[in-house]
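debug: dumping io for the single-chain case to check the tokenizer round-trip. Nothing else runs in this session.
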Amino acid sequence: MQKSACFYLGKVVSKYSYKGEVLVKLDTDEPELYENMESVFVSLGNNLVPFFIERCSLHKSSLLRIRFEEVANEADADKIMGAKLYLPLDFLPKLEGNKFYFHEIIGFNLQDSVHGDIGIVKSVNDTTNQALFEVEKGDKQLLIPINDDIITKVDRENKTIYVTTPEGLVDLYLN
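debug: decoded output
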């Protein structure tokens, strides 16, 4: 399995028991969706290795307590500490309306209500407090906030996101 065919689920952050159980910090708004998984891919070196789950349950808010079949003790758990967990993209629930996953809108066209075509979404920067569309228009790069107030429509069929940007924002980049 290639990482490009998967989404990042979370990271092993600590050991839970001497029997090899670990706690995984999930990168999701809905951790309860991942309580009954049978397996995950664990990133070890440059490879994604399938690990089968004996049991898993939510532990506090966004932590998942996992007992892997392959991890029997603390030494085994130490080997996967800090490892990132992945699942195939088809495990993601389908989103509708103006909701989207960041990876699915790469390559979408951004249409502004005032300026028309303002470019192609090249990536999403979610390392800041406000996630941003990184849009390319010719040789210029625009940073447009991802916000429910700005996004008016997501047209998956035509790979277009319609936005109404704050006055002056697009002008900063294009003029």
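debug: round-trip ok. The first strand starts at residue 6 and ends at 15.
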